[in-house]
Amino acid sequence: MRFFMIHKLRLSNACFVMLATAGCLLATDKAFALQNSSLLSVFSASTTASSGDFNFTSSTAPDLSGSNWGLGVNENDVYHAALKHTQTGGPANRDWELRIGRGGQIYSIRSDVGEIVPPQSIGRPYNDEVFQAISVDTSPRDSGGQAAFYHQSGYYVDGTNVTQPTFAPMLASSSAESNSWATLSLAVQADTESTPQQPGGLLNYQRTRDLGGGVIEVTHSIYNFGSDRVNFHNLPWGGVRKTVFDNMLVSNPGGGFTDRLIDDFDQTANQVVTSDNTGGWAAFTEGTAGSDRGLAYVFGNTDNHLAESWQTSKSSWRWGDGGGDFLGIPIRDFNVGTFRREVDVNPGDLFESRYFMVLGDVDHIDSTIADRDLVASATYDKRTIGEADSDLLGWYIVDDNGTLSIVESDLGDASDFITYAQPVNGSTPLFLLEDAEGNEFVSVDPYALSETPHDGITDYKGILGFVLPQDVTSADGNYVELNAVFAGKENYLNTDPGATFFALPGISSVPEPSAIVLLMFASSGLCLRRRKKV
User: Fold this and answer.
1) Do 96 and 225 reside in the same domain of the chain?
2) What is the per-residue pLDDT across 462-511, written as a single tens digit (0 to 9) for each?
3) Does pLDDT of 515 surpass 50?
4) Which of 131, 163, 227, 256 has its CB 3.0 to 4.6 Å from that of 525, i.e. a possible disulfide?
5) d(C-alpha 187, C-alpha 199), whole Å
6) Rounded Cα gap, residues 335 and 126, in angstroms
7) Per DSSP, what are the bridge partners of residue 279?
8) Residue 48 falls within a domain, yes or no?
9) How many domains does the chain have?
10) H or E element: which one contains 173?
């Protein structure tokens, strides 16, 4: 039986009265999770400073791109935030607008050439033809199954399980850091009809940072809180409209670049190059002249961790035509470009990978990458966040005539319990969920109410931080069992009696309105169970 632990319980009835009446932000308000910036303080410090005079703005207010998208594609379905850069007194080809989707993906990049991101294809709206992190568990192939592809963006529309654009649950989002935007989302397996179907347990963090001069830094952090390893990653997967940029320039190790053929994406032999055989970047462009405009990916050219067991192969750059043409008309207006890292991210691991995008003409791209030493700054590594390294979050349980809510409190005597703000290695997120009837639940399992997020049964309101399994806490830590927080409130706990997880005894099978349910699992993995229907 695996118990989850939090920092030692603190009680203060006097503080309860003050918090309950002072207009504190309740868990029933989604904004509490989406704007909690401490949950997003997970990234390593950047070594690249911003440069030049520019103006950066970010907003979640409705502000669509105005770009032309594919037949039947509606940008309203995906929009989450707009980021905008204007260079003071600089060339217009270094200005840009970037839009973040509801899964944290980058679904639109506009510059003076217009929209760069492809127009989207039927069945994959804002899911495949976007910039995102993709992690793969290849192990099912060993037993004749299909690899599990976990998308940052969301699901394929298959007409059966998913009938409309459905995106990965957003758990937190903030612009707290200067000139940047950060998101946290729950990765989902894109193909709901794949066999086996593995919901998995991956968190995708992304920070998008404006560095000026057409340079955008993107950092992906992947935290594995599940029971399965992922071992192949696209960081990023992305691409451009081939009607805009139809040349591929691959940098040379000794300087300069080579114009490479763009053939069908499946023709991998001539369209894959290991990073050490490049100068650390590649670019889709209008052409090879210095004044031709383009978008570069700067991914680095040094595999610093090949000697470690968790990196199994060299990193590589792959590109190609994502759809071909018919009578000169693009079937799929999509030139794919993806940087691939073959590293094992095991349960409890936190892995980070950083790359840069550079907008402008070819001369600017080439010189900027060299002058700002971007290749050396495109780094990757596994990170360890210890119990003493993480920020803490305080929470108070408010019981209003039998209806429970959670108030975020100051640390100290006002807290019923305290969680870690960052993913301490080996920890598990504590999810705040809501069912279709408006009942709230707290769980260490994101699939406690439903096996899949795409069915609309679960509303993911955010996370309350991270808790530790008892077997990985430090010996001298000051902890209390998570279920003890709800002692005396058993009528608010609910679980399927036939499920293989632990819950407090005497649990009713019928949830009370606005109840908070704590689900805790007996096995070392977080089993996937559907809540019993009554």
Assistant:
1) yes
2) 998 998 887 777 766 677 777 777 666 543 433 333 232 222 111 222 22
3) no
4) 227
5) 9
6) 15
7) none
8) no
9) 2
10) strand 170-174
Give the Å distances, CA to CA, from 344 to 223, 225, 310, 313, 351: 12, 14, 5, 10, 9
Segment 105-108 long-range contacts (CB within 8 Å, at least 24 positions apart): 105/130, 105/131, 105/132, 105/152, 105/153, 105/154, 105/167, 106/130, 106/131, 106/132, 106/208, 106/218, 106/238, 107/78, 107/131, 107/153, 108/65, 108/67, 108/75
Choose the final residue of a domain: 383, 416, 431. 383
- Residue 455 sits in the same domain as residue 315: no
Which residues fall within 8 angstroms of residue 243, CB to CB, at 6 or more apart?
Answer: 330, 333
Give the span between the Cα atoms of 226 and 16, in whole angstroms. 35
* Residue 206 and residue 78 share a domain: yes
**Which of helix, strand or coil describes residue 145?**
coil
Same domain, 346 and 466: no
DSSP 8-state symbol, 329: E
Mean pLDDT of the chain: 82
Range of the domain at 496: 4-40+387-521
Q: Is 125 within a domain? A: yes
CB atoms within 10 A of CB 243: 14
**Is 399 found in the same domain as 340?**
no
The answer to whether residues 106 and 30 belong to one domain is no
Note if the pTM is more than 0.85. yes
365, 383, 401 - which closes a domain: 383
> Using an 8 Å Cβ cutoff, are 212 and 178 in contact?
no
- Is position 528 within any domain? no
Query: For 120-164, what is each residue's pLDDT tens digit?
Result: 987 789 999 999 999 999 988 877 778 899 999 999 998 888 989
Give the whole-angstrom CA distance, residue 339 versus residue 299. Answer: 7
Q: Where are the beta strands (DSSP E) in 331-458?
A: 335-341, 350-361, 380-383, 392-400, 403-409, 417-420, 428-434, 440-443
CA nearest to 339, candidates 289, 389, 375: 375
Q: Please tell me whether residues 339 and 447 are part of one structural domain.
A: no
C-alpha separations of 123 from 71, 85, 164 in Å: 11, 32, 9
Q: In terms of Cα–Cα distance, which of 520, 519, 514 is closest to 27?
A: 514
